[in-house]
Specification:
Helix content of chain A: 40-55%
Strand content of chain B: 35-45%
Oligomer: heterodimer
Distance between the termini of chain A: 66 Å
CATH class of the largest domain in chain A: Mainly Beta
CATH topology of the largest domain in chain A: Butyryl-CoA Dehydrogenase, subunit A, domain 2
Mean pLDDT of chain A: 96
Number of strands of chain A: 14
Largest sheet of chain A: 6 strands, mixed
Order of helices and strands of chain A: HEEHHEEHHHEEEEEEHEEHHEEHHHHHHH
Distance between the termini of chain B: 41 Å
Helix content of chain B: 10-25%
Low-confidence stretches of chain A: none
Radius of gyration of chain A: 23 Å
Largest interface: A-B, 36 and 30 residues
Number of helices of chain A: 16
CATH architecture of the largest domain in chain A: Beta Barrel
Low-confidence stretches of chain B: none
Largest sheet of chain B: 6 strands, mixed
Number of strands of chain B: 6
Shape of chain B: globular
Structural class of chain B: alpha/beta
Number of domains of chain A: 2
Structural class of chain A: alpha+beta
Number of helices of chain B: 2
Strand order of the largest sheet of chain B: 3-4-6-1-2-5
Strand content of chain A: 5-15%
Radius of gyration of chain B: 13 Å
């Protein structure tokens, strides 16, 4: 089996029992808890997209290891076309689920690991790439859902990992054994880890000599004993638990982005699953390469899919109250398209200007500057997009009653009278709830921080931009002497 | 390109019930560590399920608490194996085995 169906993935999830805590309860079955179910259903849709022949070019790739067809979420990009289809996959998946493709971080992480393990084996004579390729071939053959874990809890930001009072704020090595390693520590904000078969864990950032025990990359099964997931919990989680009918919600089937805090309490990782252990020099590269890929995809393309949904919903909201032809409404919608498509253009540029890194590895990564531009642009643009959605959607976006109140014999007729406009009240309220999901939900800060907060992109701009060259150009045109 | 990725693990319960699973290399080592050192089975979080675990000659002998019929024991092991990304495999020569008592 190289491509799993959505049903086969759901069958797997029936039997996968990671140790998950969500909103005060231990979750016995991911599909029976309404909050965790939304995450699993979103992942199942990612599998379903790959089943549909019309998505084949985007969702299915050819394994460079075996030549077999594989889900693109497990593909290592080997050329520009792969990069382009990778960002198109980010677009398609976010348009289809309105939340994370929960296999996305894992996909970008495995590209980074492929590049960096190749480099380590070349430089150090290690066997990490061989281990990684075997693990990847296994993951591809079984079409595993692989999430990615990068962000450590980090503790006191003034201190290095080894100076922390609580060393578990960084995932670290506890013991080296003949058959594997034992690790402990905490990774945070892990999108969709609970409903994945496995998680690819990377170091959280660059490390220095003396910090070897924090230099780790490995793959772990999601139910490995010692691993606990503490799910995010917020007003949207509570609403999902209480609503009784998911049709009440802004994104009924797939929900908000579901993340968890992953706690590793002496988890055993066999050597075959270890892809970096102690080589501090390569941690920064591994993380930077991940960020390079993820900023093109998560920043430049995924959020463009979200924007498409928000723009569509906003246009419906305008039509339902009869203002779709008002010039300032049209102008605001055009602005939403401008922010969105500019980011998509940056993502496409990042793919088209991608290159092999490191030379000889066969792994292609996107252009760093354009990828960072994509992410920084959408981080700011997304707030403008949801601002306009809230503007055009009107106060109803946050003042509406429940959908099911329309059916109440006493207040239903009043609500239908109050909110009927150019379209019936139920349509207006449905689209208002949809826009509430976006403009008053979790996606604003999520888009800001996902793939790194904008300050990291600004820093990368200072590193990647040749400012001296620009000054020289200006001086030359001005005929100015040095 | 062929990749030697699998290790086949045979689960044996009693004299007649057995099933093969294929997992990625290292899966058996992880099961040994978790059963012997942590007294834990993947996918089962209540303490006390693993009453005993011993390793000898590539065979992990597991003793589970409670008096369960063979079918129920196999179901437990099926869940445990799937929770370490090992899936049922028809045929193949098992290098490792788990016996349940």
């Amino acid at each position: 089996m190289a491509l799993k169906t959505a049903q086969q993935y759901l069958d797997d999830m029936e039997k996968l029992v990671p140790r998950v805590y969500c909103g005060g309860k231990w979750v016995k079955n991911l599909l029976e808890n309404p909050v965790t179910r939304s995450m699993v259903m979103a992942n199942s849709m990612i599998y379903a997209l790959a089943e549909d022949p019309k998505n084949k070019e985007v969702m299915v790739a050819t394994s460079h290891l075996t030549g077999e067809p594989i889900n693109r979420n497990l593909n290592v990009a080997r050329n520009i076309h792969d990069l382009d289809m990778r960002q198109e996959m980010a677009l398609l998946t976010s348009q289809s689920v309105g939340t994370c493709n929960y296999r996305c971080v894992g996909c970008d992480a495995l590209n980074s690991v492929a590049a960096t393990t190749w480099e380590m084996d070349r430089d150090l004579g290690t066997q990490y790439e061989a281990n990684f390729n075997k693990w990847l071939a296994y993951a591809q053959a079984n079409d595993l859902a692989v999430s990615g874990a990068i962000t450590d809890a980090k503790g006191d930001r003034r201190k290095r990992p080894s100076q922390q009072e609580e060393v578990d704020t960084f995932v670290h090595l506890v013991e080296k054994r003949p058959d594997g390693i034992v690790v402990r520590g905490i990774k945070v904000s892990q999108s969709g880890a609970i409903g994945s078969h496995e998680t690819l864990v990377l170091p959280g950032g660059a490390l220095r000599e003396g910090e070897e025990k924090f230099a780790l990359a490995f793959a772990v099964q999601n139910s490995a004993p010692g691993l606990t997931y503490i799910c995010q919990y917020n007003a949207y989680s509570a609403e999902r638990e209480a609503c009784g009918d998911v049709c009440e919600l802004g994104n009924p089937l797939y929900g908000q982005r579901e993340t968890s805090t992953m706690v590793f309490d002496n988890v055993f990782i066999p050597w075959e699953r270890v892809f970096l252990c102690g080589e501090t020099k390569y941690c920064g590269r591994m993380v930077t390469r991940f960020a390079k890929a993820h900023r093109m995809n998560c920043g430049g393309a995924c959020k463009v899919g979200f924007a498409d949904l928000i723009i569509g919903g906003t246009m419906l909201a305008a039509e339902y109250i009869g203002v779709e032809k008002v010039p300032h409404i049209q102008e605001k919608i055009i602005d939403m398209v401008r922010f969105s498509e500019t980011s998509h253009a940056c993502a496409i540029a990042a793919a088209m200007r991608g290159r092999e890194e490191p030379k000889g590895s066969g792994v292609y990564l996107p252009d760093d500057l354009f990828g960072n531009a994509a992410k920084l642009n959408i981080a700011h643009g997304f707030w403008e997009i949801i601002k306009n959605a809230g503007d055009i959607g009107g106060g109803l976006v946050v003042t509406m009653p429940r959908m099911k109140d329309l059916d109440d014999p006493e207040v239903g007729p009043m609500l239908k009278k109050a909110f009927g406009a150019a379209a019936p009240a139920d349509k207006r309220m449905k689209v208002a709830k949809f826009l509430q999901h976006w403009s008053a939900g979790l996606h604003g800060p999520g888009t800001w921080h996902g793939a790194g907060a904008p300050q990291t992109q600004r820093f990368m701009f200072t590193v990647l931009t040749d400012f001296d060259a620009k000054k020289k150009m200006a001086k030359k045109l001005m005929q100015m002497e040095d | 390109m062929q990749f030697d990725t699998d290790e086949i693990i045979q689960v044996r319960i009693g004299k007649s019930l057995s099933r093969n699973y294929a997992g990625y290399k290292g899966t058996f080592a992880a099961l040994i560590y978790n059963c012997v050192e942590k007294k834990a089975l993947p996918g089962f979080h209540e303490k006390g399920l693993v009453a005993g675990a011993e390793m000898e000659n590539e065979t992990l002998s597991l003793r589970l608490s409670g008096n369960r019929p063979d079918d129920a024991l196999m179901e437990i092991m099926d869940i445990a194996l799937r929770n370490v990304s090992a899936f049922p495999r028809e045929g193949g020569e098992a290098r490792f085995s788990i016996t349940i008592g």
